[in-house]
Specification:
The protein is an alpha/beta fold and about 325 residues long. It has one domain: Alpha-Beta Barrel (TIM Barrel). Helices cover about 40% and strands about 15% of the residues. The chain contains 11 helices and 10 strands. Strands 1, 2, 3, 4, 5, 6, 7 and 10 form an 8-stranded parallel beta sheet that branches. Helix 1 links the parallel strand 1 and strand 2. The chain binds zinc ion.
Length: about 325
């Protein structure tokens, strides 16, 4: 990409969100969507089409499209211009049959297969996940140690495994999320996104995101100085977050989140959905490939950011335990 980007409408920066559906319910995310719509922001929300009859230790409070109220909420969001994306069939691992049934259900409900997919937690059908996300030997070894799953645990991209669905992904899904960073301006870390990676060929284009696990991290990422810098640098941002994690209390959006989103909306930004932004970025590219140097520095940066994030989360958990 040559020179600073000029976004559609002559805007100075681009901002959107991919909201993963973990622990989301109509009650704990709807107010956030009402706020985004009022601010003329259209973002992307992942959904789970199917329930998880075997139970789920960490995610059982989540609603899925089998809950009528949640289904109506998701359909209504699409009508209002938000994008619906895939987070797999449900909150725990799915073999091929359930994954494909989930996609068919999404197509029935929303009129087409989702164009965007994000792998979920420790689901075994995740593609190129765990240590397979990266190539650098040292980064890979660190991650393997830290992630605690064996090398052949994630099998979505492995033909012949019960979790295989890579063929379907390559055919029907345009964009899959890989690395996330503690950086609001992704143009600084991964200017070539979305990119094709020939060593992970079943994903047509990968994209990176700015990581904000929950409301605390989201509010910290959207601090005024960060947002001002995103605008000054004419950058672009896709925040990967979970609106189900602490953004709404007693039916109201957290006041800091609200103020920061209002500030963002007053700036000279373009606020598309994730696939709109990625389609547009691709049009600006000469090639789909990722320069090896950029990929190397992304992996190191990712490992570093992950390390600090885990440290911060541990500190915060300790503080909470002390308070309660
Ligand atoms: Zn998830």
């Amino acid at each position: 990409m040559a020179g600073p980007l000029v976004y559609p409408g002559g805007k100075s920066f681009a901002f959107t969100v991919i909201d993963d559906t973990d622990v989301a319910t109509v009650e704990n995310v709807e107010p956030v969507y009402r706020l985004l719509e009022r601010l003329d922001m259209r973002t992307t929300k992942t959904v789970w089409p199917l329930d998880c009859p075997e139970g789920s230790r960490n995610f059982s409070s989540s609603e899925t499209l089998e809950d009528p109220a949640y289904r109506e909420f998701a359909l209504d969001l699409q009508r209002r211009g938000f994008e619906v994306a895939s987070h797999g069939a449900t909150m725990e691992s799915s073999k091929r049959e359930r994954t494909l049934a989930g996609f068919r259900r999404l197509a029935d409900l929303f009129g087409a297969y989702p164009r965007v997919h994000a792998n979920h937690a420790f689901n075994r059908e995740n593609l190129y996940w765990g240590a397979d996300r990266v190539d650098q030997l040292v980064v890979n070894a660190l991650y393997r140690r830290f992630n605690g799953r064996p090398a052949d645990y994630y099998l979505g991209h492995v033909e012949g495994s019960p979790y295989w669905w890579g063929d379907f992904c390559g055919q029907h899904v345009a964009y899959v999320r890989n690395l996330t960073f503690r950086e609001i301006n992704l143009a600084k870390v991964n200017p070539s996104m979305p990119y094709h990676d020939p060593s992970r060929p079943l994903v047509r284009w990968w994209f990176s995101a700015a990581d904000a696990e929950d409301r605390f991290e989201f509010n910290s990422l959207l601090r005024q100085d960060n947002v001002a810098r995103l605008e000054a640098e004419r950058g672009f941002c896709i925040v990967a977050t979970h609106f189900g994690k602490g953004f709404v209390q007693d039916g109201e959006v957290n006041p800091t989140t609200r103020r920061q989103l209002e500030d963002l909306a007053r700036r000279d930004g373009w606020f598309p959905t994730v696939s709109e932004l990625l389609d547009w970025l691709r049009e600006q590219h000469v090639t789909d490939s990722l320069p090896p140097r950029e990929w190397r520095s992304m992996q190191w940066r990712w490992a570093r950011d992950l390390f600090w994030q885990k440290l911060r989360q541990r500190r915060r958990r300790k503080k909470r335990v002390r308070k309660s």
